[in-house]
Backbone:
């Protein structure tokens, strides 16, 4: 059904007719706005360190609730200088991720997505522990693990963790995907989905910096299309859920992909912009031949060295991957400071 209060033949309607649409925020207010004003119900809703930081900055009550829940199972540190303070903060952050996600889960069709600490991306054991802690935190607020997907930046080590987590019934999404090699490894590891980053993450932080490029010169578009072609040609069931999408030109060109996680700024534009004359959707075909997709690849049984060599051969992909990880790591640190300040400000821990 076409959305109400929108442009005639809107880009949103055209894209939503051929791809599932998910929300790239944990804002309950934005979710409810799109439902009440435009009749949109999103499939999934995602978060990362930047999204969590922004949410907790405007909704400190989520951090306070998390701290109170954590304090029911562990002792509250006597002060910020106590030896157990940092560990308490870490537990509150994990619980706050779940508190925030639980609120969003009430108004979407399927799952909320929560990302591990990016600083752990190369530590299999730590990833399993952190992901399991997130799932346990969701259980505390009444959200079953079937309604949660854990986001893991795709590395050799994280995909070994994905295999373990999947075996224990925890759904994983391979994120920060910037190369075909990452997409192949994530599918082999059993991820339910991947998220190729279409636009540079810096553009998503500052959408005003977006510059339209010819599609043949747009790395994110070309990489994402390559993944779509490969998955379709080789019958891979892992969902291709594209992310970091700002440009309407690229969104239209990638329509037909399994799923799109769209940030709020792009959703507003999609709703209020008509499909340009001459543009046909879907931009991607449903089926591709193996000749079109290229040779079949496999990494899961080849060892870390072979995979890393293949991944590192793509200089642009590697650069974009590290930019994203460093950005998320920066927001992780900001979130830690924010949570510490909240604990003091709201009288949970003494200064």
Residues:
């Amino acid at each position: 059904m076409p959305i109400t209060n929108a442009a005639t033949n809107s880009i949103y309607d055209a894209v939503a007719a051929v791809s599932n649409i998910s929300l790239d925020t944990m804002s309950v207010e934005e979710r409810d706005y799109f439902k009440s004003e435009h009749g949109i119900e999103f499939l999934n809703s995602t978060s990362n360190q930047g999204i969590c930081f922004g949410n907790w900055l405007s909704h400190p009550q989520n951090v306070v609730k998390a701290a109170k829940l954590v304090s029911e199972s562990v002792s509250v540190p006597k002060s910020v200088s106590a030896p157990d303070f940092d560990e308490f903060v870490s537990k509150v952050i994990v619980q706050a991720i779940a508190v925030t996600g639980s609120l969003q889960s009430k108004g979407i069709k399927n799952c909320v997505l929560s990302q591990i600490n990016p600083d752990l991306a190369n530590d299999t054991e730590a990833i399993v522990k952190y992901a399991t802690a997130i799932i346990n935190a969701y259980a505390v607020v009444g959200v079953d693990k079937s309604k949660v997907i854990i986001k893991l930046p795709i590395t050799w080590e994280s995909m070994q963790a994905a295999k373990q987590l999947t075996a224990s019934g925890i759904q994983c999404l391979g994120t920060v995907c910037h190369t075909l090699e990452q997409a192949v490894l994530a599918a082999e590891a059993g991820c339910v989905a991947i998220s190729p980053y279409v636009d540079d993450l810096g553009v998503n932080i500052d959408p005003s910096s977006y510059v339209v490029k010819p599609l043949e010169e747009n790395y994110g578009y070309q990489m994402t299309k390559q993944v779509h072609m490969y998955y379709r040609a080789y019958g891979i069931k892992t969902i291709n859920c594209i992310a970091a999408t700002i440009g309407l030109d690229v969104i239209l060109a990638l329509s037909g992909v399994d799923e799109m996680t769209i940030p709020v700024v792009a959703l507003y534009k999609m709703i209020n912009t008509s499909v340009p004359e001459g543009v046909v959707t879907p931009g991607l075909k449903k089926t591709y031949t193996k000749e079109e997709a290229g040779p079949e690849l496999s990494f899961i049984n080849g060892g870390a060295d072979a995979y890393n060599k293949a991944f590192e051969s793509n200089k642009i992909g590697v650069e974009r991957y590290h930019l994203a990880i460093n950005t998320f790591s920066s927001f992780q640190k900001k979130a830690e400071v924010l949570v510490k300040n909240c604990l003091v400000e709201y009288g949970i821990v003494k200064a």
In short: The longest strand covers residues 171-177. The radius of gyration is 20 Å. The mean pLDDT is 96. The longest helix spans residues 315-345.
